[in-house]
Amino acid sequence: MLKPLLVVSAVVLFGITASSAAGPTQQEATPAPAPAAASQKSPVKPTAQSQARAKQIYGTDCTICHGANGDGKTDLAKDMQLTLKDWTDPKALADQSEKDLFNTIRNGKGKMPAEDAGRAKDDEVWNLIIYIRGLYKQQPAAEQPAAVPPASN
């Protein structure tokens, strides 16, 4: 019962987002990268407030496919036959530049919708990238097996 509800909710959310977006569609014109995206490094310095906003955006726009912890193992991703990177692994984004991530988020890629500038400003997207790159740090530490005392004879 939960899986169909999630799929329907996702379809409705993407439909509303797509229908309310102003401007040309991706078929009409591919938007040029934002000027801030021209650099390889993020032009923003994260603050507690900016990272709280990034977490909010992630929770609203990204969690449904990428998962709350960023592992990409969600019912919707499975239903859409998506293989998403596991961001809980620090190596998952090692080959992605800041510019590439910015452009992917801003313009979309494949089945991933674009993050419209009306929903997140450029500096918020840059902070979202910092948040995503830090998801692996939010994972609980692997439990170490309890030390077994040596057997006494």
Structure summary:
With 153 residues, this protein is an all-alpha fold. The protein is 42% helix and 0% strand.
Topology:
Blueprint: H1 2-20, H2 48-66, H3 75-79, H4 98-107, H5 122-133
Compressed to H and E, one letter per element, the order equals: HHHHH
The CATH superfamily label of one domain reads: Cytochrome c-like domain
Question: Whole-number radius of gyration?
Answer: 19 Å
Shape-level CATH architecture of one domain: Orthogonal Bundle
Gross morphology is: globular
Poorly predicted parts: 4-8, 11-39
Mean pLDDT: 78
Number of strands: 0
Counting helices, strands and paired strands, the structural category is mainly alpha
- Helix tally equals 5
Please give the share of residues in helix: 40-55%
Reading off the top of the CATH hierarchy, the class of one domain is best stated as Mainly Alpha
Biggest β-sheet: count, sense, barrel? none
In whole angstroms, the N-to-C terminal distance is: 58 Å
Q: Kindly identify the CATH topology of one domain.
A: Cytochrome Bc1 Complex, Chain D, domain 2
Give the percentage of residues in beta strands.
under 5%
- Quaternary: single chain
Structure, explained:
The structure is a single chain. This protein is globular. The longest helix is centred in the first third of the chain and has 19 residues, at 2-20. The protein has 153 residues and is mainly α. The relative contact order is 0.18. Residues 4-8 and 11-39 have low confidence and may be disordered. It has helices at 2-20, 48-66, 75-79, 98-107, 122-133. It has a domain at 2-10 and 42-138: Cytochrome Bc1 Complex, Chain D, domain 2, CATH 1.10.760.10.
